[in-house]
Amino acid sequence: MKKPFLAQLVVICLVEGLTFPAGSYAMMQKLTPDQRETAIKYGKKGVRMEVSDFIKEWSVNNGDKGFAFIVTEFLALAFAAQQAALKSTELNNFDIEDTLAKSAGKLVFRVTLFGNTDTFAKDYTAVIQAGSKTFPATYSDIPPGESYGDGKTKPAFVTDSDFYFPAEGVDPNSMITLAVQDKDGKEVAKFQFDLAKIR
To answer: Which residues of the chain have pLDDT under 50?
Structure first.
């Protein structure tokens, strides 16, 4: 059976873009040794998981309105461990520290959006809304859209954009909303994340 488009897309996103991105617990930052080990074990287990299941805890799927997931330190390390396991290798201390250093202090979102031209998202920006506070993205990477639908019954293009935010000032127990906006500040998509349920 052919995998759904978004599942295939997520595989590409993870392999190409994020090698640098339940229960009730706050989003983990500055992982303890035990948390690191848990992330590595999860990554190794993920070799046998569908990608959509592997990142489900960190994902929000709004169907044709878009798809997004947040790359936390835990997920970044889990993904690194998964990739190592796929190559039948183990992460060494340098790999672990390097992965965590690249993720430390950041909230990184990968967002899949659909539009009618290959440049539909080029001027998009994003903000995080956390309670009464709003945090703008400090960096974004928005590649040109790739051909997807027929432009009539389905959008003609899809793009995967990365938005980076500082983690400082964001309560790891809070509910936050990632809002993507056009050049005029009009909201084009939003995704709600409950950080208390994300590692």
So the answer is: 1-26
Quick one: pLDDT at residue 143? 95
Query: How does 37-55 read in b/e, with b if 16+ C-beta sit within 10 Å?
Result: ebbbebbbebeeeebbebb
From CA 59, how far away is CA 68, in angstroms rounded?
A: 6
Alpha helices (H) along the chain: 5-17, 33-45, 51-54, 73-86, 93-103
Q: Which two tokens stand for residue 163?
A: 């938005």
Strand partners, 126: 180
CA distance 133 to 17: 29
Residue with tokens 């309105």: 65
Task: Tabulate helix, strand, coil % of the chain (nearest 5).
Answer: 35, 30, 35
Q: Domain residues of the chain, as ranges? A: 5-197
